[in-house]
Amino acid sequence: MRTVLVIDDNPAVRTALELLFGLHDIRTVGAESPELGLSVLASESIDLVVQDMNFSADTTSGEEGIALYRSIRADYPDLPIILLTAWTRLETAVQLIKAGAGDYIGKPWDDNKLLATVENLLELSQATREVSRFREERRRRRRQLDDRYDLRGIVFASSGMERVVELACQVARADVPVLITGPNGAGKERIAEIVQANSARAKGPFITVNCGALPHELIEAELFGADPGAYTGAPNRAREGRFEVADGGTLFLDEIGNLPLAGQMKLLRILETGQFERLGSSRTRQVSVRVISATNADLPALIREGQFREDLFYRLNVIELRVPPLSERSDDILPLAEHFLGGRASLHSSARSALAAHTWPGNVRELKNAIERASLLCSDGVIHARDLALAPHRAGGVRLPAEAEPDKPMIEAALQKARGVISQAAADLGLSRQALYRRMEKMGIES
């Protein structure tokens, strides 16, 4: 059952709140002093605290309440706290709200308003605990991955990327071809490096070829090598191909969908037999190379169009690793941004909101470029949203300038979309819950 701790020296207040909350299936624990309240917190599982601001007779300064609030917040940073006050100056309560208090309620209180606030904060408390458990479990799995595998310094925090990395580590020991799919700039080459680093070929060479960056007439020579004079403009000496250079290691073929059909045929043969001939040579050579390929193209569509061999596709696609776009792994955005900054600057809260709201069509590569640009444009070593020059997506699909304030129709639309759940509406608007409450009160919006 949900449990609320009421810390108030007035027994009538504790009894009234116990009766009120009990009618709504909320268990209440009372404490008559800050010391007893802290003792209850140490011994019981509490979901929310309602605390008075003054405990001594003839005291109205609120200093006792401030000290209690700070003590609770120091040991329980995520625990929601409602300030219950009759005498404390409004400025003091507002300062504590800015410091993270859930809300303040004046005595005598309105039962409906108090219950609505308590229900919202209890819902938020439950969500916060679930998120904390999820994050702790994620950190535990990340530590296990770090202990067991060489992750090549990859930065990620999302569950989607965690699954990709874990699968890459698991299949690394199986000496079979791997196909990595995903959009440009999402990090496919880094996944290929992880496969190589955790394979039996880890000490062998890791050779990369971007099939999309080479003219079609040179790709075969690049991959398989060429004898002198094998083609127009060929050098007067033999040229080793990338397969020969990668012998005993791994060859990473990026943009495999751009490989011409003649090269596809030779690639299929080398995958099946390990044998090939250089261009212009009749001598058969033998190599042992693991092939990891990557593409952002729809290979099945290319097969239907006759541009890619179906048998090669199935040979390359023994194991497929799909790297999701950055838009599908928002938890990675801020850790990656901090990584790219490398301590050269810090991110202002407006920049963090702008980064989280952007859709990142260019994926990690776009994020890196945005951070590099912002680190050069920012002043005093602090990056603001304006330095990023991004237009975040806000609630309702309305595109706003980076630091624009949500207006009344936007807040009402967010509340309707979130079905009145304040924490969800605040997240959609890029605001803290306290900031949304203040705007709702200022604009006369009912909870």
Can you describe this structure?
The chain is α/β, with parallel strands linked by helices. The chain folds into three domains: 3-129, Response regulator (Rossmann fold, 3-Layer(aba) Sandwich), CATH 3.40.50; 153-324, 3-Layer(aba) Sandwich (Rossmann fold), CATH 3.40.50.300; 330-443, Helicase, Ruva Protein, domain 3 (Orthogonal Bundle), CATH 1.10.8.60. It is 47% helix and 13% strand. It has helices at residues 11-22, 34-43, 63-75, 90-98, 111-148, 159-171, 188-197, 216-224, 242-245, 261-273, 299-304, 310-316, 333-341, 349-357, 363-377, 385-388, 408-417, 422-429, 433-443, and strands spanning 3-7, 27-31, 48-52, 81-85, 103-106, 178-181, 206-210, 250-254, 275-277, 284-286, 290-295, 319-322, 346-347, 382-383. The protein has a five-stranded parallel sheet with strand order 2-1-3-4-5, sandwiched between helices. α3 (63-75) links the parallel β3 and β4. α17 packs across α18.
